[in-house]
Specification:
Number of domains: 1
Largest sheet: 8 strands, mixed
Shape: globular
Order of helices and strands: EHEHHHEEHHEHEHEHEHHH
Helix content: 40-55%
Structural class: alpha/beta
CATH class: Alpha Beta
Oligomer: single chain
Distance between the termini: 13 Å
């Protein structure tokens, strides 16, 4: 059965989508068959895979409404072993459509359960940068939540809120959920980054992943060309660090 990993944060601009795409590509390099699920109405993950959301006829919304399976709305990516369930902007109203329906927070989990056990090794979910029914569905379905965060003041506050949300989900809908914190967009030249990272290491302990993702302009460029970093700039620092992250997670599993 596939391991399901949600990538989420209550703050935007922390490399959430970049992490989902890059980690997925690196896991595929290691021989894993990966399904990306775009649950963000901004559709950045879908765009990063070279798709145009407005032109897609079948998206994740259909699966959440129960009108189609995840497999039937998925698309193959350019990289072998990396598929995506795309999103469209209509996700923004899906919270209201599903609200009040029976077991509305379990829609994604049940859609994943209908897939063949040997179809995918890993499912990566790109969450919206807010707490709503879409995020609740992702965390309810996930075995692991990765929380990308920058080493800066406002991100630290958002991190606390996201951890509180994860603890709430553990109590209410998904007791198996565990979470880990990933430092992203780290600037080793910035003293504040170093200070906050040191505090994170002391305060978070085992919840903080060892891998650190540093600032790399190639990570920002690759989505423009519809390619993950492993195809766009495979020898860059960003690619190597996401490969290290993939190996760290596989070792923990």
């Amino acid at each position: 059965m596939a391991v399901t990993v949600a990538i989420g944060s209550q703050k935007g601009g922390v490399a959430k989508t970049t992490t989902c795409l890059s980690l997925g590509a690196c896991l595929a390099e290691l021989g894993q068959i990966v399904l990306l699920v775009d649950l963000d109405p901004q559709t950045n993950l879908t765009l990063s895979m070279g798709l145009t959301p407005a032109k897609l006829r079948h998206t994740v919304s259909e699966a959440l409404l129960g009108n189609a399976s995840l497999v039937s709305v998925s698309r193959e990516g350019a990289s072998f072993g990396l598929d995506i369930v795309p999103a469209s902007p209509d996700l923004v109203v899906l919270d209201k459509v599903l609200q009040g329906r029976p077991d509305c927070e379990f829609r994604l989990e049940r859609a994943l359960e209908t897939m063949d056990d040997d179809l995918y090794d890993v499912v990566l979910i790109d969450c919206p940068p807010s707490f709503g029914l879409l995020t609740l569905n992702a965390l309810t379905a996930a075995d692991l939540l990765i929380i990308p965060t920058q080493c800066e003041y406002y991100a630290a506050h958002a991190l606390r809120r996201t951890i509180e949300l994860a603890e709430l989900v553990r109590k209410k809908t998904n007791p198996r959920l565990v979470y880990r914190v990933l430092v992203t967009m780290y600037d080793r030249r910035n003293r504040i980054c170093q200070v906050i990272h040191d505090r994170m290491q002391r305060g978070l302990g085992r919840f903080l992943l060892k891998t650190v993702i540093e600032v790399d302009t190639k990570l920002r460029e690759s989505p423009v060309f519809g390619e993950p970093i492993t195809r766009y700039a495979p020898q860059t620092r960003g690619a190597q660090q996401y490969r290290a992250l993939a190996k760290e997670l596989m070792h923990r599993a």
